[in-house]
Sequence to fold (389 residues):
Amino acid sequence: MIYDLAIVGAGTCGLFAAINSHSLTTVVFDKNSGAKKLSITGNSKSNITNCIKKEEFLERYGKNGTFLRDSFKLFFKEELINFFERSGFDLICKDNKVVLKSKTSEEFAKALLNKAAKSVTSFRGYEPVVDISKDRDIFILNTHKDQYYAKNVLLACGGKSFPATGSDGSCYNIAKKLGHGIVKPNPCEVPFCCKDVKNLQGLSFKNVHLTLKTAKKRFSEYGDILFTHFGISGPAVLELSKNDFKHAKLFINFLGIKEQELLELLTKKNRKIKNIVKDIMPKRFVDEIVKTDKYSKEASKKELKEIVNSLLEFEVEVEKCSFNKAFVTCGGVSLREINPKTMESKLTKGLFFCGEIMDIQGSIGGFNLQAAFSTSFCAMNSIKSRFLT
Ligand SMILES: Cc1cc2nc3c(=O)[nH]c(=O)nc-3n(C[C@H](O)[C@H](O)[C@H](O)COP(=O)(O)OP(=O)(O)OC[C@H]3O[C@@H](n4cnc5c(N)ncnc54)[C@H](O)[C@@H]3O)c2cc1C
Fold:
């Protein structure tokens, strides 16, 4: 049988493509059962898009954002929200993030997977595609089990992050073989790994000011962080991790105030320094970091300066953790060879892309799922239009 369409990857954009495949004969492949990454999104509440204005939206994808302009024209957040509300998922906008209100991301992923499996001719889980070639107008897809034929192929295999979910970057080689350039994949939106902060594990801080100093540059970010068993995570760290570096020094200003202000606070009354700091920082942090037992009037300038530094310039040597802990992949199939109006390859007719496999990534806050759904819709719109005449 020659399928109209073969979808490689049953993650976010592959499943949505399957649901939208309607009257086409479609085969879907996945390395796993499918929907694994989607089922762990948004801390179990799938942050599917963002409430910020349309004009600001594209800016959240950095220099490659304009690539999404056409697919957003076709299918943007209003359409996405309508689609899921009609499918029985109530959504809510919380701190600008559109998240599931009552159901969990696991239920969300399962529902999408079931709907996708019912919408297509053949759903082949646990059957990764290992090679694709083209003979005249027909694509030949090889798996370890069999060979399949299709008039169109949608590569929906994701990036390289969280490889346990199935997206391990294996499709980059397939895209390469079909002529496409790959922008070197890097772990992005990834926590920082470091050895020195294990004793602070579990402590979280709101609205801290971070400064990252690399050999050549300095970057800063403002937001929430969390100390974990391997290092430091949280939205502000994930955002900083998008910058290009391997090793760096991170300076944390926990209080967001200046040195003089803190010095005044520490010396205003003659109390035990530890107790003053406990008024503004978690007890466990103070017990770990503030070693002196002195009253403020007894403390030397040097001792006071050390305390100020530990609260306003807390220094940690960090490196980006690996792909295993990254939320998204920076890099991927080069956008230069993909038509943004159709998601079709400019090099191989009938080959389409959607989602994270491409060199496009957004900030945290629902931008990656919106891009996956919009590019999926755009690709399917083009593929289906081929069968109309
Ligand atoms: C923990 C975590 C939380 C996240 N939370 C959010 C969030 O709340 N909001 C947000 O916007 N983004 C979030 N993201 C990012 C978001 O999940 C991804 O950007 C998005 O799922 C990408 O969709 P995709 O379809 O391109 O790839 P994926 O969803 O990764 O799907 C790719 C699929 O392809 C399959 N595959 C790979 N290779 C092959 C092959 N050779 N043959 C067959 N199948 C193959 C994989 O098994 C997988 O199922 C999160 C990411 C992580 C890791």
